[in-house]
Amino acid sequence: MTKINAPKGTRDILPTEIAAWQQAERQFAAVCARYGYQEIRIPTFESTDLFQRGVGDTTDVVQKEMYTFLDKGGRSISLRPEGTAGVVRSYLENGMASWSSPVRLWYNITAFRYENVQKGRYREFHQFGCEVFGADGPVVDAELISLLALFFKEIGLGQTSLRINSIGCPVCRTAYNQLLKAHIQPHLADMCPTCNDRFEKNPLRIIDCKEHKCQPVTKTAPALLDHLCPDCQTHFDGLCTNLDELGIAYTVDRGIVRGLDYYTRTVFEFISDHVGTQGTICGGGRYDGLIESIDGPHTPGIGFALGVERLMMELNSQGVSVATLPVPLIYIAGLGAAAATKARQITFLLRQQGIYAETDLMNRSLKAQMKFAGKTGATYTLVLGDDEIANGEAKLKHMADSTERVVRLDQLAAFLTAR
RNA sequence: GUGGGAUUAGCUCAGUUGGUUAGAGUGCCAGAUUGUGGCUCUGGAGGUCGUGGGUUCGAUUCCCAUAUCCCACCCCA
Questions:
Q1: Which residues of A355-382 are buried (b: 16+ CB within 10 A; e: fewer)?
Q2: What pTM does this model have?
Q3: Per CATH, is A15-169+229-317 categorized as 3.90.79.10?
Q4: Distance, angstroms, CA A4 to C1' B47?
Q5: Which of A90, A191, A342, A373 shows the greatest Cβ crowding within 10 Å of its Cβ?
């Protein structure tokens, strides 16, 4: 029998970490609620078609990284590599266009990509995300970004910089592509195969290339941001103004070109340098053409996804104090069979009153029970023997300073609650 | 898909220039005049040395393959 391990690229989130995860989840949900965003839960898998059309079948994510299989009905199914496509599908399928606009949603999902694993990158990973449908103004972009800024602030994350850019719309991109190709053409023979491949298909992505031999060309290339059409320019200026008005700091980074095909106009990232080379904690942007591309009516949209593993790594490296698991308020030790029964009864009673109480489950000696109580971090311990049961009162020990006080058993819950 | 490093007890790691029963720390369980935790002492459980081949009288140690982990390219959250 070979030993069975977790599949490559997956990991267990153990109780020692779970309090921090729960805290992040709570705080994200709380901030979203204050903004009027509503939670949506979508399927883990969808038709492969949805991702091919929604994410874009020229992307690496769709071409090489999806977990795709045929189900027993012969349908091609894929585990979601991201959340936006599924939310858009749900938006259309459930007629959310008829809801009052804008429709603002958030989600907490796992996503799956078959990639080689490294720091901050897993095959199964977690994302928090938001999507806004039906509003096209830059105030929406700014609100969405402000939600993130507020979340980072509340969870205690500093040193994370916001970078923004605009990658225009089909109109300005067509004109820009001609400029870009004219710039690249003379050097194409010296550039990497990927760039050569992208030259015809999606020249904009060449800007994103990190190959050393391509750098001289990409660094000097004209930036799309400097060649926006009037409408896109107005939108981008509006975003900057709105961010300024909200007091949110940002830097314009002409090099941000998101890797998913659906983005238009506004793109942004929150970046940290503590997460290895996977510094993007959160990335997002506007996708005004996405809904049409999966057969919906023209509907503007914008969203982001936040990598929860990367967020947790960043919190750790910044030394942000995170939540710890709750400790028992009281441990009740039982001496002998009759007292042990009574201890279990009282423990059950206390638990019904909302108190975190523990007692022995392993028929251990008193010493071992005390040791266990100490390890759980219980605030109080109480030893129950035949005398205590007969008298109806027992000594309640405060573990931190070893002080004891006598408490009537029938008033234990009241004492602990009032404390 | 490509490259570098790693894999020995639950965890963190020693170690054997190839040789009988593979160690430490920590954690776990138990005990130190049977009714009180943390400190100390004693004892115990726990490893076919990642897996599969090869070389050898003999492999945890050398060689090959493979899996997984870590890091980087690429890509992205």
A1: bebbbbeeeeeeeebbebbeebebbbbb
A2: 0.92
A3: no
A4: 17
A5: A373
